[in-house]
Design brief:
- By secondary structure, the chain is mainly beta.
- The chain has one domain: Jelly Rolls (Sandwich), CATH 2.60.120.
- Helix content is about 10%, strand content about 30%.
- The chain contains 1 helix and 13 strands; from the N terminus they run αβββββββββββββ.
- β9 and β10 form a beta hairpin.
- The chain is globular, with a radius of gyration of 48 Å.
Length: about 240
């Protein structure tokens, strides 16, 4: 019996040691189920996508087409330039009557003193981008409105062009005039009477007699009737310069 105890005791000690440690790592300690430390994994960083910048479209202005002057009866101007536009430069000119100067642009409430203003597309059937100059002479005392445009040097071949009329459905009797101021004073060129029963007057007037001179042009409108409805309209008044 004593020999049996001596034999069993060493075996129990060996088994206890094996339960406490296998491969240098504790079996019941913290760690992996296999008894080995799990390898540490390096986290993979996935970069966030860089937002793509969306270009904002730039707004572009749509240019107005050049009006076709042949639609109002003037010659086609496929070659050449507008050397002077009397509507676009209207407020660079002086406007006055025999009694006083007038503001530019005026407004349609100034019927006693008269007024001048731009009136785009106010005539039925007229292109909306066509330049119109509306002139309303005073009703009494000073029935004429004059202008005095900045100095302009005339070249051979220059032509004054416009269509002369009145606002529709008006008892309008007026006289349109084109004159100029030179070194010695004011000189007449041409006058065109217009009665409310008339068709529009088409003007294509040569300025060759002024070629080489520097002058100041004058557009004028004079009342021929009572003046109550004398809404005179210069349609596209300009100086056309043909191509050389």
């Amino acid at each position: 019996m004593r020999k049996l105890l001596v034999f069993i005791l060493p075996i129990g000690l060996i088994l206890t040691g094996c339960r406490m440690q296998v491969g240098g790592q504790p079996i019941n300690g913290s760690g992996s189920p296999t008894g080995f430390m799990a390898p540490t994994e390096t986290p993979v960083v996935i970069p966030s996508p860089v937002p793509t910048q969306t270009d904002v479209p730039t707004a572009t202005a749509t240019p107005m087409p050049t009006p076709d002057l042949s639609l109002i009866g003037l010659p086609t101007e496929s070659a050449g330039t507008t050397a002077l536009d009397f509507v676009e430069t209207m407020c660079k000119a002086q406007w006055f009557t025999d009694l006083q100067s007038l503001p530019c642009p005026g407004n349609d409430t100034l019927t006693d003193t008269g007024y001048v203003m731009q009136s785009n597309g106010s005539l039925p059937g007229v292109q909306p981008n066509l330049n119109l100059l509306l002139v309303f002479p005073p009703k009494i005392n000073a029935p004429t409105i004059y202008s005095k445009y900045p100095a302009f040097t005339v070249k051979k071949g220059d032509r004054f062009r416009a269509v002369l009329t009145c606002l529709p459905h008006k008892f309008c009797d007026v006289e349109f005039g084109l004159t100029y101021f030179g070194d010695q004073g004011q000189y007449g060129l041409k006058h065109w009477p217009y009665l409310f029963t008339d068709a529009p007057v088409i003007v294509d007037y040569s300025l060759d007699n002024l070629a080489g001179q520097t002058v100041q042009f004058n557009l004028s409108v004079r009342s021929l009737g009572s003046g109550a409805d004398n809404y005179a309209v210069w349609m596209a008044p300009h100086i056309y310069r043909p191509a050389p």
